[in-house]
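Human:
If only I could read backbone structure tokens as easily as an amino acid sequence. I am handing you a single protein, as its sequence and its fold in token form. I hope you can help me see how the letters and the tokens relate. Thank you; the sequence and its tokens follow:
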Amino acid sequence: MFCPNCGETLKSQNQKFCASCGSVILSTPPPEAPQVRAEEKQVLSPAKSVPVYQSKTIKVGGPGPHSKMCFAFALVSLALAGVGFTFGATSLMGVLMPYSYYYSYSSFGALWLIIAVILNITGLVFGILSRTNCSKARKSEPINTFEKVGSVFAIFGIVINSIPIVVVSIILIIMLIFLMMISSFYGI
């Protein structure tokens, strides 16, 4: 006889408790034929593809060279935006108030404007270089503050340097159209 709870072989036919698990054994008449355990053959289901995810490696260490260059280029981009804004504002004040006492030194308005545009283009290039170094740092270096702050500053540098370039381009296009209209009006 077998224990109905754990399947252990009982030592005697009159046993009331299982020696292995301690469950109560009800007295049942002994089977006439020995019981054979029937095992069903397990049918294997076709293998399904399971996506295997690669664990992200944890990079240990301080900021690497790409993170530092990302931060430095972003700061240079912001600095050039500020200096370019200063030159552009000086040029604009010279155009808007040509006889003002405070802006009398801005008689070289076109020169200041050219310097401002060159500074903004250079700042835009540094902002783009900063973003490039940020993406390289993200791939090959541990996550650090230099890379995060440099990435944000680079975006600000790109936007702040792009706005004056676009504005000056629009102003130059309008001036060119205006000059073409005047020259065609006077037949020049």
